[in-house]
Design goal:
- The complex is a heterodimer of chains A (260) and B (347).
- With 260 residues, chain A is α/β, with parallel strands linked by helices.
- Chain A contains 10 helices and 10 strands.
- A 6-stranded mixed β-sheet of chain A has the order 6-7-8-3-9-10, with helices on both faces. Chain A has a 4-stranded antiparallel β-sheet with strand order 2-1-4-5, with helices on one face.
- Chain B is globular and about 50 Å long.
- The chains are: A alpha/beta (260), B mainly alpha (347).
- Chain A binds chain B through residues 56, 58, 77-79, 82-83, 87-88, 90, 94-100, 102-104, 106-108, 110-112, 114-116, 118-123, 128, 144-145, 163, 166-167, and chain B through 185, 188-191, 193-194, 196-197, 200-201, 203-212, 214-215, 218, 318-319, 339-340, 342-344, 346-347.
C-alpha cells in the first residue's frame, strides 16, 4: 500500500478547537488512507478524543476543514456523517443499556434515510441475520439476550464495536477499544480488527494507550501533544522519536503505565 | 405456570382479550338504544367512559414524547387547550359547525407544536420540561388577554349538543386509533425503533445515523395534533370553556401520573393507567370526599417508590414479552427457553 498515491479517505486540514482559552486542538493536519489501520496516540489530555469528536461531528470545529471521501463534512451533523459511512465508538461506552445485546445491534443498523418520508418505513428484513452474524463474529453469542447494562466492561466494548460495524461503515474510529479489557479479549479484538481490515477492507483509526497493540496493528501512527501534531510515522519510528519519548513516556511515565 | 404462560402466548390470548374488550366497549351504548327502559347503561356511565377514553388518548400521546423519546413534557395540556379554544372560537364566534372546527382546532395545536417544539426540543432533560411548563402557563395568560377572540376570563359558550353516545363513539374510536398507531409505530416502523434509540442514548443514536431532532419534532407534532382533537371534543362536550378550566395544571399532571402508573414507554401502560386512575379517583372521591386527594397522592407516592417502572413496565420488558414469563420459563424448563422467539419481535 502506498498512501501517497491514493486519495485520503479522511483528512483534516488546520483543524482547531478551543474550550474557552484552552486550545484543545491547534492546527492539526492529518490524512487517513483507505485500507489503513492508523493509530492516534498521545498523553492524557492531548486532544485525542476531542479530535474524534470533531471528526464524527459530535463537537463543532472552530477552525479548519475536515473531508471524508473527498467531501467537506465540517458543517455536517453526526447522523449525516454516519450515513456517509463513518462509525465510531466512545471512550466512555455508549450503548443502549436497558436493551438486550441483540436489540442494541438491531438499533444500530443502517437507517433507511434522514427525511420525514423515510421515517415510516417498515424495518428491513435480513437485519437480524446480520446482527446475529456480527454477534457471533464478536463472540457475544452466549449473552445475546442479556441486558447490555449488565455486561462486563470488555463485553460492552465488544458490543459497541459490533454496533459500529452494523451499518457496514467504511471507516471506523475506535476510542480506546482495549482499555479495561483483559489480555485474552484484547487478542480477540486485535484478530477481529485485522480480519475486518484484510477481508472486508475496512479502514480504522484507533486511539490507544496500549503501545503493544498499536505496534502490532498499525501501519502509521500520529502523536498528539497539547493539541498539536507532534510526530507522524511508522510505529517503530514513533517509538524511537525523541520528542515523543519526551512527551509521552518521559513526562509522566508512572501515570501512563497505570493507564495501560 | 409455565404451561399457562406459553398457552397464553401460543394462542395470542392477550390479543383476543383486547379484541373482546374492544367489541364490548363498542356494544355498550347499544344496550341503551335497544332496551332504553331497562336503564342498563345510563348517560352518566357513558359520560364516565368518554372521559376515560380521552385520558387514554392523551396519555398515549404524552407517552410518545415522554415515554419513547424520554422528553418529559409538563406542558402537554397546552395542545389540549389550543384544540379546545380553536374549536370553541370557530363555533361560538365564527358560527362554524363542529367537525371542521375540530380539525382546524387540532391543526392550530399542530402548528404551535411545530414552532414550540423546534425551539424547546433542542433543550435537554429538565430544561425541556420547565420550558414546556412555562409555555403552558404563558398560553393560559395569552388566552385570557386576547379577549375579543377568546372571551377572556369570562370564557366562551359553545352551542350545546347533548348526545352522549356520539361523544362516546368518537372518543372511543380515537383512543383505539391512537393506541393501534402507537403499537404499529413502535413495533413495525424504523421511526418507532429510532425513538427508543433516542431515549436510550441521544448522542449515540445520532452517531449511528439517526436524525434525533427531526424524529423528536415529528412525534411531538403528531402527539399535539391528537391531543388537540381531544381538546376540541372536550370543549364541545362541556359546552363551556374558560382559561382556568381548560388550562388547568392537573390536566398535565394527570397524564404524567397515568403514564407513570401504567408504565413509561410501554404501549399498554397509558391505557391501563388511565383506566385505573379514572376509576380509582371515582371510587375514592365517592367514598372519602375530604381525603380523596390525600389518598390519591399517597397511592402515587407508593407507586413511584415500589413500582418505578409502572405496572406494565414491571411485569414486561420493552419488547412486549413478559419478563416474569421469561424468568419462569428459564427457571422451570432450561431447554425450552422462549427467549430466542422473543428476539424476533425486535426491540
Amino acid at each position: 500500500m502506498n498512501p501517497a498515491s491514493a486519495e485520503p479517505l479522511l483528512a483534516g486540514h488546520n483543524v482547531s478547537k478551543y474550550f474557552g482559552g484552552l486550545a484543545a486542538l491547534s492546527s492539526v493536519d492529518f490524512a487517513v488512507y483507505p485500507g489503513e489501520i492508523m493509530g492516534l496516540i498521545g498523553p492524557n489530555g492531548s486532544g485525542k478524543t476531542t479530535l474524534f469528536d470533531c471528526l464524527s461531528r459530535v463537537q463543532k470545529v472552530d477552525k479548519g476543514q475536515i473531508t471524508f471521501k473527498g467531501e467537506d463534512i465540517t458543517g455536517k451533523k453526526p447522523y449525516q456523517v454516519a450515513h456517509m459511512g463513518l462509525a465510531r465508538t466512545f471512550q466512555v461506552v455508549r450503548i443502549y443499556r436497558k436493551l438486550s445485546v441483540l436489540e442494541n445491534m438491531l438499533l444500530s443498523r443502517q437507517w433507511g434515510g434522514m427525511g420525514v418520508i423515510h421515517l415510516f418505513r417498515r424495518y428491513p428484513k435480513g437485519i437480524e441475520e446480520r446482527a446475529r452474524d456480527l454477534i457471533h463474529f464478536l463472540l457475544l453469542d452466549p449473552i445475546i439476550e442479556e441486558q447490555a447494562g449488565n455486561l462486563s466492561g470488555g463485553q460492552q466494548r465488544l458490543l459497541e464495536i459490533g454496533m459500529a460495524l452494523m451499518p457496514d461503515p467504511d471507516l471506523i474510529l475506535l476510542d480506546e477499544a482495549t482499555s479495561g479489557i483483559n489480555p485474552t479479549l484484547v487478542e480477540t479484538i486485535k484478530d477481529r480488527i485485522v480480519e475486518l481490515n484484510k477481508k472486508h477492507s475496512k479502514t480504522f483509526l484507533l486511539i490507544e494507550h496500549n503501545i503493544q497493540f498499536i505496534g502490532d496493528l498499525c501501519s502509521r501512527v500520529f502523536v498528539l501533544n497539547y493539541g498539536e501534531m507532534l510526530a507522524e510515522g511508522t510505529p517503530d519510528e514513533i517509538m524511537n522519536n525523541e520528542d515523543v519519548i519526551e512527551a509521552y513516556f518521559g513526562m509522566d511515565g508512572s501515570d501512563d503505565e497505570f493507564d495501560e | 405456570m409455565v404451561r399457562l404462560v406459553s398457552f397464553w402466548q401460543q394462542y395470542h390470548l392477550g390479543r383476543w382479550a383486547l379484541i373482546i374488550v374492544a367489541l364490548a366497549l363498542f356494544a355498550l351504548p347499544l344496550a341503551q338504544i335497544i332496551v332504553p327502559e331497562r336503564k342498563l347503561v345510563t348517560n352518566s356511565l357513558l359520560f364516565s367512559f368518554t372521559q376515560m377514553f380521552m385520558l387514554v388518548t392523551m396519555a398515549s400521546n404524552w407517552n410518545l414524547t415522554g415515554g419513547y423519546t424520554g422528553y418529559i413534557d409538563f406542558g402537554h395540556a397546552v395542545f389540549f387547550g389550543l384544540g379546545a379554544y380553536g374549536t370553541g372560537v370557530l363555533m361560538a364566534k365564527a358560527g362554524w359547525i363542529f367537525f371542521p372546527s375540530l380539525i382546524v382546532g387540532a391543526i392550530v395545536a399542530l402548528i404551535f407544536a411545530l414552532l414550540i417544539g423546534s425551539a424547546t426540543l433542542r433543550l435537554k432533560g429538565p430544561y425541556f420540561s420547565i420550558a414546556m411548563l412555562g409555555t403552558f402557563v404563558a398560553m393560559r395568560e395569552i388566552v385570557r388577554v386576547i379577549k375579543p377572540l377568546t372571551g377572556g376570563g369570562t370564557g366562551l359558550t359553545l352551542p350545546p349538543y347533548l348526545n352522549r353516545p356520539l361523544f362516546y363513539y368518537v372518543t372511543l374510536i380515537q383512543a383505539v386509533i391512537v393506541v393501534v398507531f402507537v403499537w404499529w409505530l413502535i413495533k413495525h416502523t424504523e421511526f418507532g425503533q429510532s425513538l427508543i434509540a433516542i431515549r436510550e442514548d441521544e448522542v449515540g443514536a445520532e452517531m449511528r445515523g439517526i436524525n434525533a431532532t427531526l424524529h423528536k419534532i415529528t412525534i411531538f407534532t403528531i402527539a399535539a395534533f391528537s391531543t388537540g382533537l381531544v381538546g376540541g371534543l372536550w370543549a364541545y362536550q362541556n359546552t363551556f370553556i374558560d382559561p382556568d378550566i381548560v388550562f388547568i395544571e392537573s390536566r398535565t399532571l394527570d397524564l404524567v401520573m397515568i403514564v407513570m402508573l401504567g408504565g413509561l414507554g410501554t404501549i399498554a401502560g397509558p391505557v391501563l393507567g388511565a383506566v385505573l386512575l379514572y376509576w380509582m379517583r371515582d371510587i375514592i372521591w365517592a367514598n372519602f370526599l375530604q381525603f380523596h386527594l390525600i389518598i390519591q397522592g399517597l397511592v402515587l407516592i407508593l407507586i413511584v417508590l415500589f413500582l418505578p417502572e409502572g405496572i406494565v413496565g414491571s411485569i414486561s420488558d420493552r419488547s412486549g414479552g413478559t419478563t416474569i414469563g421469561r424468568l419462569w420459563g428459564r427457571y422451570f424448563t432450561a431447554e425450552e427457553d422462549t427467549a430466542p422467539e422473543k428476539a424476533e419481535v425486535g426491540p
